[in-house]
Amino acid sequence: MHPTIIVRMNSAHDPYAYPMLRSGTMQPQTDSKAPKKSTNLSINKDLLDEARSLNINLSATLEQALTEKVRHERRKQWLQNNREAIETCNELAERHGLFSDKHRVF
User: Fold this and answer.
1) Which of 11, 26, 35, 71 is the most exposed place for a label (fewest CB within 10 A)?
2) Interior angle at CA 52, CA 60 and CA 34, nearest 5
3) Does 28 reside within a domain?
4) Which residues contact 29 (CB under 8 A, 6 or more apart)?
5) pTM above 0.70, yes or no
6) Residue 11 and residue 79: Cα distance in Å, rounded?
7) Is 47 inside a domain boundary?
8) Under 8 Å between Cβ of 93 and 8
9) Is residue 86 part of a domain?
10) 56 in a domain, yes or no?
């Protein structure tokens, strides 16, 4: 008899946990064809000067960073909103095991 191994669910159905598509590309979180909006920012002068000297595209860099931050915050919110259901599912798995337990070979 194999020991029972419980797999705890914490993000199995979390749409923000796995941003990679099967193709290996990042899943877009926003519409890349959406119109751009000008805005004003305050940035450390030395950092800005260095970024410009390295020809870093500030708009693209900010969009990438914001996309990641938004994904992170959405995931955190999703987990909080679904915390009770996740805990209930985990409790059921701990109490009764998983439906696939009888098919395990390890």
Assistant:
1) 35
2) 20
3) no
4) 19, 67, 70, 71, 74
5) no
6) 7
7) yes
8) yes
9) yes
10) yes
Q: How far apart are CA 59 and CA 47, in angstroms?
A: 15
Terminal C-alpha separation, the chain: 10
The pLDDT value recorded for residue 6 is: 46
SS3 103: helix
Residue with tokens 């990438």: 64
% pLDDT > 90, the chain: 47
Number of structural domains in the chain: 1
Residue 26 pairs with which residues in a beta bridge?
A: 20
Q: Where does residue 98 fall: left (phi above 0), alpha (psi -120 to 50 degrees), or beta otherwise?
A: beta
Q: 14-36 as b/e, with b when 16 or more CB fall inside 10 Å?
A: eebeeeeeeeeeeeeeeeeeeee
Residue ranges making up the domain that contains 102: 1-21+42-106
Quick one: tokens of 80?
């909080």
